[in-house]
TrEMBL record:
Family statement drawn from the similarity comment of this UniProt entry: Belongs to the PdxA family. PdxA2 subfamily.
Keyword Amino-acid biosynthesis listed: no
Record-linked PANTHER family: 4-HYDROXYTHREONINE-4-PHOSPHATE DEHYDROGENASE, D-THREONATE 4-PHOSPHATE DEHYDROGENASE
Annotated source species: Actinoalloteichus hoggarensis
Pfam families given in the database record: PdxA
Name of the featured protein: 4-hydroxythreonine-4-phosphate dehydrogenase 2
Amino acid sequence: MSTVPVVAVTVGDPAGIGPEITARTLAELDRDAPARGVAVGDPSVLRRALAAYGMHAEVRTVTSWDVDPVGPGVVLCWDIGVVGDREVPYGEVSPLAGRAALRSIEVATEAALAGRVAGVVTAPINKEAIWAAGSEHLGHTEMLGTLTGSTRNNTMFVVRGKKIFFTTRHLSLRKALDQLTEERVFHGIQEALTALRVFGHDEPRLAVAAVNPHGGENGAFGDEEIVHIGPAVERARAQGAQVFGPVPADSVFHQLLTGRYDGVLSQYHDQGHIPAKTVDFDGTISVTVGLPILRTSVDHGTAFDIAGKGIADHGTMRSAFLAAAEYAGYADRIRAEYGS
């Protein structure tokens, strides 16, 4: 592989904005970009996406991942041969679109596992579409876990270089609170510390967010901090880790961004998503940690309502691509930690 990393970029669901933001991001890369990107999808889907933006760029099919720099106006594409010349209606759930999204992920992941690309960047998929295509996976993370044989799949948000982790993820708030236990929080702390070390923080400082207002006020507003979160923090500190908390959630993210910590473990989905996306929506990217490969992703969905209109903002995809280029240097650490 070239000393400049090559990154595979899946186009996502062809009925959504994934092909548009992928095509535009790659078409705008300079020859001296920090990574070379190869779109993984059908060339016809990418050409349609460029047309939606009114961009006159070439979609050039490749059969090797060892690609030369091409500069602006060219999108390199690994043809997955699913859609072909058929047209996928924008904004509609389609089994054909679901098959294309699935195949794109499979091809990119196989290339990463074989070491032919330094990492994978994923555009958004539609869960109903992949289910209609026969997949039983809940989404990207579960599918990547199966493809790589990994069971340590966790989400790390990165915003302005700071990392946010999650004790619970895709659960209702009520169920998330029910699942907060000392063991689960302690496991989240351990996984967050490991990820911080893998991604360059040799002596990580991790804050653990409280779940109740003002950190529970010694039990006046809830006892999760006393029963579950606090004991988990103390266990980690007893092992010598720089772990702090429970820190009230209305201040912990400000402290993160001002440099007091390297990462924050949030307790539920929106607790971590809202501050990150409010601070920098286009600059917030998602990294799946626990996989033996590097995978970054946009942090939004398929946006069926605006697909094909040429108005989709590709800022988050560009950020995800640049993050993959930056983190490609940690590929050996990622494989060593999560490959067994």
